[in-house]
Design brief:
By secondary structure, this protein is mainly alpha-helical. Helices cover 65% and strands 6% of the residues. Strands 1-2 form a two-stranded antiparallel ribbon.
Length: 165
């Protein structure tokens, strides 16, 4: 039986369709990150801290040693200023952070972690360590090192690309 030939119109439609590539890096990074956040969120929820709140505390603990302006927190987390304001209000009401006048600009306020906030961060670190141990079961230390180095390089490349815009 002779092979049926496609018309030029059908060939154009077929050629325009994207083909799923076997390289799934972006999907895997996204899925692993999302699933890990979900697990961590479950652990922290039992301690009365929401995902958004622990994200703010984590951001402050990593980059806010001298406190941070709310606008800088929102930029760093890629979240709106109004959203951050409400989160800071709730964290402050819970005693995890405090707003203080900026030493150089009396009109501005910086957000600092309180002792109680550092206690929550210590719990977060403990929970994260335990979670990572389970998540990384069966992954050799060498593969963990390679993965971390690779992701750090990818992050730096992305940062360079974003700064080039």
């Amino acid at each position: 039986m002779p092979k049926k030939q496609n018309s030029p119109a059908n060939e154009a439609k077929t050629a325009a369709r994207p083909v799923v590539k076997p390289f799934r890096f972006g999907f895997l990074v996204h899925d692993v990150s999302r699933m890990r956040r979900t697990l961590f969120d479950d652990v922290m929820r039992s301690r009365g801290v929401t995902r958004s709140q622990w994200s703010v505390l984590a951001t402050l603990s990593r980059v806010g040693a001298d406190g941070m302006m709310q606008v800088d927190i929102s930029r760093h987390m890629d979240v709106g200023k109004v959203t951050i304001g409400g989160l800071i209000d709730r964290l402050e009401a819970a005693g995890y952070v405090e707003r203080r006048l900026d030493a150089e600009d009396r009109r501005a306020r910086r957000v600092f972690i309180t002792d109680q906030g550092y206690e929550v961060i210590a719990e977060m670190q403990k929970a994260g360590s335990k979670l990572n141990k389970s998540i990384l079961a069966g992954v050799s230390p060498e593969h963990q090192r390679i993965t971390e180095e690779t992701l750090a390089l990818v992050k730096a490349n992305i940062r360079d690309m974003l700064q080039g815009d």
